[in-house]
Design a protein that fits this description.
single chain, alpha/beta, Rossmann fold, Structural Genomics Hypothetical 15.5 Kd Protein In mrcA-pckA Intergenic Region, Chain A, 3 domains, 18 helices, RNA-binding
RNA sequence: GCCGGGGUACCGAAGCGGCCAAACGGGACGGACUGUAAAUCCGUUGGCCUUUGCGCCUACGGGGGUUCAAAUCCCUCCCCCGGCACCA
């Protein structure tokens, strides 16, 4: 692959960037790389506790891909060491401890997803235990001496917690240092991260310098993007995310239900669509374009077309979906006259029979398009009976042959 | 170690002897409305019973006790939080 000229690289790399600290260093490094034919090492830290990549993280990975496309090397650093230690004080619930086996399983999965975005030929995948494991206490003290408490307290949440008397364990101070040391270990030229990583990236820059290395450029590739609820940041733990490996229809559907206020942000940061051109469209169409673009990115154009069509079919035209899960009914619940009690029928689709009854009472259940109003009735059963529970849970029923 | 405050449903949080399957808020789910929007409104939100009943079972950190009756009182254990002390 040919390495693009400087202007082209800058255009591609700077596109959508939130902040580049400092931009002049980036230009310098790019120039030098071009001159010496030595690609830049572009680092991105990966948290092995959550193996699922969602589309907000995808934005950062996409940026990493941009660097790759300019001929540079992406270095993914798996924070396995830190994840294994966790936070022994147990203060931060986010930091759960993991075994090495869990981490490796997570990372196999992660890598698979990351390769939907990244170019494997310019990718380095490293575990930070490689260097942190062998770090003894003396080396840790040396590292720790290169940063000050005052500088640590510049991080907003530290400052706030310190002032309000909320405990901050020393370990928490050590995490940014560990991450910074990763940059030293792999000699990062650039470190990428979301807005939430700004402080940590800057620590890396400072530590490299104090270790006699050329400091990395801190590249803020994305703002903290809100999740589907439009309020909290997108995160697996809030359940407001879209995973990049989710099926096309899921991704499409989730994106169609975001609040309007989010459309512009998602379009701007997650797609290459031109917002100026979408601005005047009806919000529904904007969302459809957005959803289509994202499904296309993580699946394919054909999948995106199909998802769009499916969406129109099920939700706009209220027809049955192209594919419906099949549920097999136990023969024993069938009465001699060929009918089944509705609750018995619905129960496999719900958590409990009580819930099944509740849903029926609430008018959430349709059989072959006919609403069931009461939970004390029997219905005639036939193979292929179509049941709809709520807005989008469909199932087709068949009889399970079974000999007692 | 000492002192004080806590552990209640998916989460936050009331209740502090009976009227508690547990107020209220959030979430989730369902319905109406729509653009499957969002917002709003209404409803549901432990399980079981084709008996729907002032029904039965399970549930207020674990265990034991007092009482006709406990989430509520007593004992004990576990865990969390804050303050103070100590600091090799």
């Amino acid at each position: 692959m040919k390495v693009p000229p400087l202007e082209e690289q800058l255009r591609l790399i700077k596109r959508r960037a939130v902040d580049i600290i400092p931009e002049s260093d980036l230009v310098k490094k790019l120039e030098r790389a071009l001159r010496t034919q030595k690609p830049l090492r572009v680092k991105l830290g990966v948290d092995p506790t959550s193996p699922d990549i969602h589309i907000a993280i995808g934005v950062v990975l996409q940026k990493l891909r941009d660097f790759q496309d300019c001929g540079h090397t992406a270095v993914l650093i798996v924070g396995d060491f830190t994840a294994r230690i966790g936070d022994p004080s147990g203060r931060s619930a986010q930091r759960k401890m993991l075994s090495q086996a869990e981490i490796e399983a997570n990372m196999r999965h992660y890598k698979e997803q990351a390769l939907k975005i990244l170019d494997p030929s310019r990718l380095e995948f490293r575990y930070n235990s490689e260097w942190l494991e062998h770090m003894n206490f003396a080396k840790l003290l040396e590292l720790a001496s290169r940063y000050t408490v005052a500088a640590m307290l510049e991080r907003d949440d530290f400052a706030q917690r310190y002032q309000s008397g909320t405990p901050i364990s020393i370990v928490e101070f050590l995490y940014p240092l560990a991450q910074a040391y990763d940059s030293v270990a792999i000699q990062a030229d650039v470190e990428l991260g979301g807005e939430d990583q700004r402080f940590n990236l800057l620590v890396g820059r400072a530590i490299q310098e104090r270790c006699g290395q050329e400091p990395q450029v801190c590249f803020i590739a994305a703002p903290v993007l809100e999740g589907l609820d439009g309020v909290k940041k997108m995160s697996k733990s809030f359940g407001n995310y879209v995973g990049v490996t989710e099926p096309p229809n899921e991704i499409f559907g989730k994106l169609m239900s975001i609040p309007d206020a989010l459309i512009e942000r998602y379009v701007t940061f997650m797609t290459d669509l031109d917002w100026e051109k979408l601005k005047e469209l009806h919000p529904k169409e904007q969302k459809q374009k957005l959803a289509h673009a994202i499904v296309k990115r993580y699946h394919s154009e054909a999948a995106a077309d199909a998802a769009l069509e499916e969406f129109e079919r099920v939700f706009a035209r209220k027809e049955r979906p192209a594919e419906v899960q099949k549920v097999y009914l136990d023969k024993r619940v069938l009465k001699p006259n060929g009918t089944v009690w509705v609750v018995e029928l619905i129960a496999p689709l719900t958590k409990s029979r009580s819930e099944a009854k509740r849903l029926i009472e609430q008018g959430a259940v349709e059989l072959d398009g006919v609403k069931i109003a009461q939970d004390d009735q029997d219905v005639l059963f036939r193979d292929g009976l179509l049941i709809k529970v709520g807005k989008h849970r469909f199932a087709e029923f068949y009889l399970k042959e079974h000999s007692p």
